[in-house]
Amino acid sequence: MKTVETISLAGETVLVRVDFNVPLNADFQITDDSRMRAALPTLNKILSDGGSVIIMSHLGRPKTGPEDKFSLRHIQSHLADLLARPVQFAPDCIGEEAKQMAANLKAGEVLLLENLRFYKEEEKGEEAFSAALASLGSFYVNDAFGTAHRAHASTAVMAAHFPGKKAFGYLMAKEVANAQKVMDSPARPLTAIVGGAKVSDKILIVENLMKVADHILIGGGMAYTFFKAQGGEIGNSLCEDDRLETCREILARAAESGVQIHVPVDSVLADKFAADAATQVAPSGSVPAGWMGLDIGPEAQKHFASILAASKTILWNGPMGVFEMKAFESGTKAVADAVAAATQNGAFSLIGGGDSAAAVYQFGYQDQVSYVSTGGGALLEFFEGKTLPGIAAVLAD
Known about the structure:
alpha/beta, six-stranded parallel beta sheet
């Protein structure tokens, strides 16, 4: 991968696609700036080379054009603090004002464009919009792994306007390198932890991981579809009846290929989906009528921890339960603790973005694992074996 590390960007006006889709509270204060901090090495490299930077990003999911709550002006001052220099703000991402502000940029200066998704053309990947964005700069850098799986104007289409003058940022390169470390050359045993609500969301990743993993630990709501597929009683637990045969096929193929799939032997049950629900612990395949599994149980936690303790490479994608509720956080927390302990003992651990990353940060383990990905959906598709448009566009010339 050609990265900013290998080139000088002196004199260039560099369009950098970042993923600053950060959470904001009701007062528009950033509650987690990790994605912004992750892009700083790339931005600082360009600036120290003597280039100027135009930052492109989306924020939230605006539906009908510009909405103040999704304006990137809310992050302008914090970005200036992180970069320790002024950051100009263009109230539009294309148009004459943006073009003039871009043209006036001097070496070492930074311009933040307004939210790209205020234009439907961004998500549609329209060429005219891509060309308008491309006209603002002389060099293109993609450092937005979190959107690399989207064939949007700023992530895939506009790269074609910069033949020989495009590269990846440090974050993008780091994300790909860490993902490849799991898929291409893992130290063994390799254990994949796959959680979340639905089997349908994780079928492809489980099928692809069976080609490389030694162990796959299944948790979260998706586990109960596996239990029902094997004839278990799951009460009111989440289940996708149309995926029962898929689960049976996965288990059969895993047995044939020597991959060990582990499901939680017990669960923390609730009589309703609520933080104040009554709870009990029971075998995961013997859930009483009227009850639902919302977390893995204590025996499952011990079993999963023992497998992780013996692992040399660990991939974690998806929580073990409804960790947002304190009554059902212990399974996810126990897995986080086990992953951190294995890492301390020399294992390589990759946390796969999304809810897994949120859990690691919530429980304070972010500095005790090898790498926390910034891309949930992008990393998922990488492990499903799909080509990511945002990466392919920069590699093409």
